[in-house]
């Protein structure tokens, strides 16, 4: 079955950086767009960033544009999120998601999440 396993979360001071990773298995990685979502305490899950199956197209939430970079390594079946200039409001559980095959924007598979905490 499809498994998505996130790693790389932790505690960091405001202005710092973290790199999240998501290891995928049980799917043809190159057929799926991938994305990062996050959920802060007491709030709903929100979109952070997405990347197409080829890696040619990316998009970002306005709140992270210019600070976060999404990328993928199709040979290793890995998804990344480089987070720079972190702010306390970036504190959340970050989830990796995989789309339906060749359907960017429709995410059917989810990881268990990794906690990111940014202290002020």
Describe the structure.
The structure is a single chain. Strands 2, 4, 5, 6, 9, 10 and 11 form a 7-stranded mixed β-sheet that branches. With 120 residues, the chain is mainly β. Strand 5 and strand 6 form a beta hairpin. The chain contains no helices and 11 strands. The chain is 0% helix and 59% strand. It is globular and about 40 Å long.
Question: Which key phrases capture this entry?
Answer:
single chain; 120 residues; mainly beta; 7-stranded mixed beta sheet; globular
The gist of it:
This protein is 0% helix and 59% strand.
- Cα shape: globular
Q: What gyration radius follows from the Cα positions, in whole Å?
A: 13 Å
What is the count of β-strands?
11
Strand content: over 45%
Helix content: under 10%
The secondary structure category is: mainly beta
Q: In this structure, how is the largest beta sheet organized?
A: 7 strands, mixed
State the oligomer.
Answer: single chain
Low-confidence stretches: none
**What separation lies between the terminal Cα atoms?**
40 Å
What is the succession of H and E elements? EEEEEEEEEEE
The number of helices is 0
> What is the averaged pLDDT score?
96
């Amino acid at each position: 079955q499809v498994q998505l396993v996130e790693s790389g979360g932790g505690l960091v001071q405001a202005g710092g950086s973290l790199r999240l990773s998501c290891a995928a298995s049980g799917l043809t990685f190159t057929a799926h767009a991938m994305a990062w979502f996050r959920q802060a305490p007491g709030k709903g899950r929100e979109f952070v960033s997405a990347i197409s199956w080829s890696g040619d197209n990316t998009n970002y939430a306005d709140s992270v544009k210019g600070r976060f970079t999404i990328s993928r390594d199709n040979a290793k079946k890995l998804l990344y999120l480089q987070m720079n200039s972190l702010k306390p409001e970036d504190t959340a559980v970050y989830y990796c998601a995989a789309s339906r095959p060749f359907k960017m924007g429709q995410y059917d598979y989810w990881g268990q999440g990794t906690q990111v905490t940014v202290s002020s």
